[in-house]
Amino acid sequence: MLNEKAEKIKNVLFEKTEQNLEKYRDFHFGEFIEKPNQCGYFERNGNWYTYVIDERNFCTFTGPFNGSAIIYACSKVLHISKLFKEYKFTEQELEIYINNSFHSFGEIDKKSERHFDCK
């Protein structure tokens, strides 16, 4: 069952694509599914991340995203970002999208710990 935030993200994606997300059966809303050829988004440490797992089960996480940035990040994963121009990344969000890639939950957690230590 999706939490409230994950459900809102899913609803925005469905609304913009006019329910055509049904054809994206390998995209998972608000949960991480560890199987080849899967993708989706999930929440960890209070932030949102996207993930893509290739056919060899190699996983790449991208984030952290907050607010509308996760919606645009999901649209990028689904190759439908043209439908979501109003959610386009800010410069800072684009930097995160380009430069913050992880390959394990440990890497995500380590990055979060370092980020919070700086406060």
UniProtKB/TrEMBL annotation:
Origin superkingdom: Bacteria
Official protein name in the record: Uncharacterized protein
